[in-house]
Amino acid sequence: MKTTDMILIRPLMTEKIMAFKESDGKYGFQVSLDANKIEIKRAVEHKFEVEVKSVSTINVKGKQKRMNSQKGVTKGKRSDWKKAIVTLVEGHSIDIFAPKQ
Prior knowledge:
The chain is α+β, with helices and mostly antiparallel strands. It is built from three helices and six strands. The chain has a four-stranded antiparallel beta sheet with strand order 1-2-6-3. It is elongated.
């Protein structure tokens, strides 16, 4: 079984997710590529002591990158990653900026 720290990598703070948070009680997290919705739900409930209503996941493809150097053009690719949008039950919230205990 994976630990919470292995599943939840970091919270996401984008304008779109912050707008979701204020209106719908949704939070975004970068999660492990092999994590499923059930594992993500359990990890969020365990780590933040809240009740999760639903989880949506999105596989984000890494961008292709090019860099010009003295030796020619170097090509590369950013890593693929997975995003999870977690909806909490009404009345629950997560304070992401709270200090760890």
